[in-house]
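Schema walk-through. Below, the input block comes first and the output block second. Nothing else is stored per chain. Lengths vary across the set, and this one has 384 residues.
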Amino acid sequence: MNLNMTEPDSTAHRRIGIRCHLRRWIFVTLMALYCLAIFFALDFLYSNLFFSESPNAPGLRIPNAVFDHTLAANYEGYERWGEARYRIATNSLGFKDATMRYVAPRGNSRRVVLIGDSLTEGIGVPFEQSFAGMLALAGQQRRDKTEFLNAAVVSYSPTLYYRKIKFLLDSGLKFDELVVLPDLSDVQDEATSYFCSDDNPKYAALCRPESTYQPVRYEKPHEPHGVLSRNFRLSNALLRQLWVLRGGAKGEATTPSDRIGWSVPNFDVGNMYAPLGVEGGITRAVQHMQALAELLKRQNIPLTVVVYPWPLSLVQDDPGGRWVTIWRDFCAINCKAFINTFPDFIAAKDAHSDWYVRYFILGDIHFSLAGHKLVFDALKRNGL
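--- output ---
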């Protein structure tokens, strides 16, 4: 009888417990929604107050009648690359530099000019954190001072290396050594672009109005593009970090793409290397590097060539492959030195499982600070 009398009490207690549990669940849910609402409101304010849709470094990247495109001289401002915003300065030559300054035609010390494309320009990091900036600082700290000048610009390739260096020499610039850093993407650039900037009649005949300079020719890293992601950048950053933890960034950066698809065995590049094709792009690149080497020989200026990988290179069975062979053979008869940084990156990859996010910008192929330091160390070790 007692058991029968207590059963209703047990049922009542269970109902009370369920109601208390439901209240707690509703309270926690409402608090969570309240906190999320505050977070999204702050995210919206932050995204719209601190990130404008105004032009990126307006007036910095300009067309050039001789070598297609360049950087404006004596420029100071800020550029954004993905989520990074960093200061940019150029000198009187239109080269990225630590500060705006006049560069005399003839220096007071040994002078080395660097030229390459976006990885040598130092896209995504301040000048001081690029290997060019590190070389410039180290050069001034030497007993025998060396001035390093960075003539590199986004999307340059051998046709423009030759045209720009010839222009600088004809303009009276004196320097003691040239360091060229050809990029794996140069093959596509040479196969498809800059025909209007070519002295060779064979290539100049391919000039079309659409092949002329466009303000942005390069690929940006993973960054917000949609309305929601632009207005909620912190949320987008959190999602991107989850993407990184799941290996998405590394996977994207190591997936074959048209830009360097030519270097991946059995990868079909389709018509992305028209009109010259892959072999035509390689031939044109070597021809213009040969013209550059001969120009320098006439001026008694030694040439050094430096090669480096993309993330995709480092997951292949033969990381340097044909690219290293092309420039090693070229340098056997044309260069003071050939510097191959592939072994440095391979050793770093083998030593660090997080090698991609360590040495490259997230969702991108450009070097991070650590990647630039790796290149700087290799160049310094080889006498630069």
